[in-house]
Description:
- With 264 residues, the protein is of the alpha/beta class.
- The chain has helices at residues 30-39, 58-66, 79-89, 107-119, 144-153, 157-161, 165-168, 198-211, 220-229, 231-234; strands spanning 4-9, 24-25, 28-29, 46-52, 70-74, 94-99, 124-126, 140-143, 176-178.
- The strands form two sheets. The protein has a seven-stranded mixed β-sheet, sandwiched between helices. Strands 2-3 form a two-stranded antiparallel sheet.
- Helix 3 packs antiparallel against helix 5 (144-153).
- The model has no long low-confidence stretch (mean pLDDT 97).
Amino acid sequence: MKKIVTVIQARTGSSRLPGKVMMEILGKPLLVRMIERVQASGLKGCLVVATSTDREDDVIEKVCIDNRILCYRGSALDLLDRHYQAGKWQEADAVVKIPSDCPLIDPLIIDKVLQYYLDHYFEYVSNLHPATYPDGNDVEVMDIKTLEKAWKEADKSFEREHTTPYIWEHPERFSTGNVTWETGLDYSMSHRFTIDYPEDFIFIKTIYERLYPVKQDFGMTDILNLLNSNPEIAAINEKYAGVNWYRNHMNELKTVTAAQTKQV
Length: 264
């Protein structure tokens, strides 16, 4: 059986919202809340938080120690190296990439993507190419040999920073699979569950305050039902819906269209 290593990439040095992973939600850092949700995945395997060696990220290592979570420390900007080294450290057969800006991620979606990977023979599987789930449910799975090839060969800065573009930008070299939302809907550009801006934090904090006291294992359906009944919550960060990192590299990306991102 394959050894799965799920990596949550986290650091305090966000350019748009510094220290966001340590901002508190119901008495715990956002990173801890996200760890709780990823831990609820039945297929996640070994969980590792991968942070940088920068002194300011000592606090992340302490959070991991306090919560008995494995912590790998590596390059601040070369996320491809950080994921590869974390996977190699834990002798992974496959590595799952989940960014720390997804504190509302649904564990059932993690398991769905992982099950698809395990059931097929793709070298890389995600729910992002194309994306259909609400932004902030990002799951990418790749076998360690594929990750190693990318680690050795990727030479563009955005390929190193964002870990996986070298893989999904070369479908002629790697076999890739994609998991779409079973509803047939596409909320990837209209619903934003991720965090990069102060409004995102207010949105996520509001979701937790409304749902967590009633149902600690609330999922995506619970969130969508809450938003349908309370459109003023969705309005908190709706101006950033569809904004993602693609917008800064449209002249370099070959498999992403302008319709898959929005300028701020």
